[in-house]
Amino acid sequence: MYLSETRGADGAAARPPAPGPPRDTDPPRDTDLTPGADPPPGIGPTRDMAPPPDMAPPPGMDPRPGTGTRRAVITGNVVALGVVSLLTDVSAEMVTAVLPLYLVYGLQLSPAVFGLLDGVYTGATAVLRLAGGHVADRFRRRKLVAGLGYGISAVCKLGFLAAGRSVPLIGLAIGLDRAGKGLRTAPRDALISLSAAPEAQGRAFGLHRAMDTAGALAGPLVAFGVLAAAAGAFDAVFVVSFCVAAAGVLVLVLFVREHAGTAARRAPVRLRDAAALLRDRGYRRVLLGTAPLGLATISDAFLYLMVQRGHDLPANALPLLPVGVAAAYLLAAVPFGRLADRVGRGRVVIGGYAALLACYLLLLVPAGPAGPAAVAAVLVLRGLSYAATDGVVSALAGPLLPEERRASGLAVVQTGQALGTMAASWAFGLLWTAAGPRAAVQVMAAALCAALAIAVPLLRRTPR
User: Fold this and answer.
1) CATH architecture of the domain covering 76-258+271-459
2) Which of 294, 414, 396 is closest to 345 using CA atoms?
3) Which portions of the chain have biased composition (kind: Pro residues) (predicted)?
4) For the whole model, what pTM was predicted?
5) Which helix (H) or strand (E) holds 410?
6) Most buried pick, 74, 132, 314, 335, via CB within 10 A?
7) Distance between CA atoms of 103 and 166, rounded to whole angstroms?
8) For residue 443, what are the contacts with CB-CB under 8 A and spacing of at least 6?
9) Rg (CA), the chain
């Protein structure tokens, strides 16, 4: 019900008011006045005349005659894209939750090889983020490019079935799955940004990420239930994951609308135009501030392995650890989005990475009587760091970009973070193999401190 009502808000401003008989309070029509003559005393402007500036509607109010309600801050496009992401994340997190269990305990991979595959899982999105953002802007087909990305990821769930126990084929399936994510992320975030008012970017991305995280919360639970029902058969997880992802693609096709703005009347965007974005000081600050933070980010898969091994949890508990992260993320996404709109998005992003640093420090605490509380604190802090950074970075960069190059600009920021996280996964896996997990966490904590020293002066001074 809410979806159908708010979808209409996306295009309401583009539709003229419905014709109807004049009311007693309506001014005379143009035919009642002499052309070029001023209106008679006591008569307001005609419908073809613009109202004086002092009579302009306040921000957030519907400018059409006869309406006094506030314009919807969260439009139908944002809600529909949230549903798509919810279903897609159920599918993706089903696979993500079982991969460490499947690869480390099922296939007996070393931490170095697992780190290599995990880096592919993260970094395969990098190049296609740029390609997806540029193509979406150049041809003004953000929905189509995002849909292709969602479709590729859905089909790749069946690729895990074909890969069997072959590590190279599993790596290929992971790479293609993440390539689909890279292709869709920037166009999707551009659609969200263009569907929300500049002052409501944090709230729009907060709602979207909350719905996205609801899927991330459900995914591991579904995977755990499927494994229990199928007697540990991973194939069943991959099949169910494909079906849920296909449902998400269907919602995108039926309910998400392409944004029709002023960019539709402009020339196609060229690569040279996209590169010119770096001339903007505010955008450059965001890019230079967020890229080093990705270099110091431990992947979730390694985080869960650290928690499981450090606190002697049973191996079959691994798929349930992401639930704690997703629950904290879900509860904090919308409040942090509102906070970002109020106090500054750069400050919230900095706070999110400070929470990640606290998470690292807790990983270094030896297991003891307070073990369960330490595990819960690690998962909650990771979820809070996601809520303060994931969508807020896009909300921070989006309004700094022109409409016709928004997907390209967001793709550059996201690519910088993805490349950094890919390198971090490879480095962490090698450090774990060479010096042990504790030393690897210590190195990453020091790297995050250095990255924050770079990011704080840059992000704190970005526009609110």
Assistant:
1) Up-down Bundle (1.20)
2) 396
3) 50-62
4) 0.69
5) helix 406-435
6) 132
7) 11
8) 427, 431
9) 25
